[in-house]
Amino acid sequence: MQYDVLIVGGGVGGGSTALNLAARGFKVAIVEERDWGGTTINRGSTPKRALLASAETHFRMAQLVENVAPLSWSEMANHSAKIVLAANQRYGNNLVKAGITTIEGHATFVNSNTILVHGQKYQAKRIILATGARPRELEFSGSQYMEHSASFLKTSNLPDNITIVGAGIIAFALTSIATEAGTKVTIVQHNQRALGILDQGLVQILIKRLENAGVVFKFDNTIQKITELSNGSYQVTTNQSQFKTGAVYCVAGRIPNTEDLNLSVAGVKVGLKGIKVDKNLRTSNPQIFALGDCCDASVPKLSNYAIYQGKCLGNSLEKPVQFPIKYPTPALTVFSIPKLGQVGISTQQASNKPELEIKTIDIKNWQTYARNGDDLAELKIVFNKGSQQIVGAEVLSQDADQLVDYLSLLIQQHVTANDLQQQLFAYPSQASDLYGIWQSR
Length: 441
Ligand SMILES: Cc1cc2nc3c(=O)[nH]c(=O)nc-3n(C[C@H](O)[C@H](O)[C@H](O)COP(=O)(O)OP(=O)(O)OC[C@H]3O[C@@H](n4cnc5c(N)ncnc54)[C@H](O)[C@@H]3O)c2cc1C
Ligand SMILES: NC(=O)c1ccc[n+]([C@@H]2O[C@H](COP(=O)([O-])OP(=O)(O)OC[C@H]3O[C@@H](n4cnc5c(N)ncnc54)[C@H](O)[C@@H]3O)[C@@H](O)[C@H]2O)c1
Fold this sequence. Notes:
The protein has helices at residues 12-23, 38-43, 45-64, 73-97, 149-154, 169-180, 200-212, 303-318, 347-350, 367-371, 400-412, 435-439; strands at 2-8, 28-32, 101-104, 107-111, 114-117, 120-129, 133-135, 161-165, 184-188, 216-218, 223-228, 234-238, 242-245, 247-250, 254-256, 270-271, 274-276, 288-290, 295-296, 331-334, 339-344, 356-361, 378-384, 390-397.
């Protein structure tokens, strides 16, 4: 069978590219070996945020009133499973409705324009690789007992005591959800630094709050051994301690899926961070492209980037002239409780730039945060000293995701603190709180 474009990987990166190309009249096929919607819909932000919905509501209630009823994990898990199933079905159906040929199975290259799935050959003028990433495995005695974020996010029975290996973005989300559901969490991190890319002052406030809620952080601890005990629980031995736990989840980074594709017959080069691509996502074979978590595009490996790259690739395949992809203002949220958000230039990047200034604003008394009992809320804004434009921000708050997105619009539009005074926001709202940025200048 012959197509204009064949996409390998039906996650948000591959899916957004397929929809974009089909809308432009290309004859498109997409291959998926596991589940439509990939990591995001089935094992990533969709179930994570569905579980977090109950966890953060529980936390917010407890900030405002006494005697909040405990959460039921099985109800949370049922809610999440329903959301995931509906999103997964919608994802697959939307591809079919758009006239895209959907193929289920594992794809490998036969040559540079032919893909093999279940013994059937498919040919295309161009091929796009969007095969995503998988959890990084650690190797030590008993490491086979470790599970990953996917099993945490779909379990209907969370033990009352768990261990999480790694203190990164996924770890803080899972820890916050589990803690609010009444599970005791121990985080094992091999060095001193948690959430390395985020503002370390705000990270320390978050760690303290989680410690107060019962989380144990074991920094500078490397796991050496896990032993299964007769009651189904585990004994964990690190270089510094030994303790019992009901389950161990390893969230120590992710590895691009580039093996098992027979890429060498297609002349596609791979490096340590994924498939090598140029600024237009073109691989070492000019008719083959790669995007999302499987490629080394020098941008964060996040859903929003994979979707954006899919849109750009859809546009650029239609036009004869190629331009390097221009990425908009980067925005990121750690979905912990409270959340940590970052947008534009980070405080770490700003601290080396004399033309930039970091202003810390205590937003606990701003209306939104005061009425929500958001008593840890703190905002750090990065200004350009000359133009007074906002160029970055980091925030710790229950509503950090929304604030970061408002600030992303302001940064993208080159808004100054003074320009905010020209806006008539509905009052009192989270947007109208932004006047406070001007007042604090
Ligand atoms: C727990 C967790 C939480 C996350 N939360 C967030 C978040 O809040 N915000 C955010 O922006 N990002 C988040 N991420 C990251 C985000 O999920 C990824 O960046 C995103 O899924 C990348 O999309 P993708 O399409 O490149 O890859 P994927 O979604 O991984 O899709 C790749 C697909 O390709 C398929 N595939 C692979 N090889 C083959 C083959 N040979 N043949 C056929 N099919 C194949 C796979 O089965 C998979 O479905 C999270 C990740 C995890 C694990
Ligand atoms: N909200 C979001 O945008 C979001 C949420 C979840 C995941 N993601 C994406 O998924 C990726 C993977 O997330 P992640 O949390 O697995 O990775 P991460 O890179 O954020 O964190 C991994 C952590 O594990 C630690 N680590 C590494 N080896 C270890 C060892 N042997 N023992 C103990 N600790 C060890 C690292 O130092 C780091 O702190 C992220 O980088 C991001 O691209 C994004």
